[in-house]
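The instructor's notes for this session suggest beginning with a concrete chain rather than abstract definitions. Hand out the sequence below and ask the class to guess, before any prediction is shown, which regions might be ordered.
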Amino acid sequence: MPDTPAPALKILAKRSQFLAAARARRQGAGSMMVQARRRAEDEPEAPEAIRVGFTCSKKVGNAVARNRAKRRMREAARAVLPLQGRPGWDYVLIGRKDQTADRPFELLKQDLARALERLHAERAPGPKHPRKDGARG
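After discussion, reveal the predicted structure:
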């Protein structure tokens, strides 16, 4: 098998990019929430790139705690996304209070890898959550 270079990781910088990912798929993991969306064909970013963004709310803690959580998520993304992320996709990693900063790093990477597997698993067609009242649509 020929060695193919890992896809380039680009950083999401605009609020609109984060909002677009928030409207797409999401998967919780023990130490973070991962949002993912496939970019449209007409978007200007290189189709072979993987874009990633990181965020933590104030619930995670003060600025020091939020920055620590984001640093750890960045390192986990650098290790996992080139191997398990998909080119042409955007990912947003959201830190969780106490869990992102305190979780052992190997488990943090495993959480991200597991979330990516679930996000990219083929899903059966049909409604996500059937309505309780039996109505359709």
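Then share the key points. Residues 9-119 form a domain with the Ribosomal Protein S5; domain 2 fold (CATH 3.30.230.10). The chain is about 35% helix and 20% strand.
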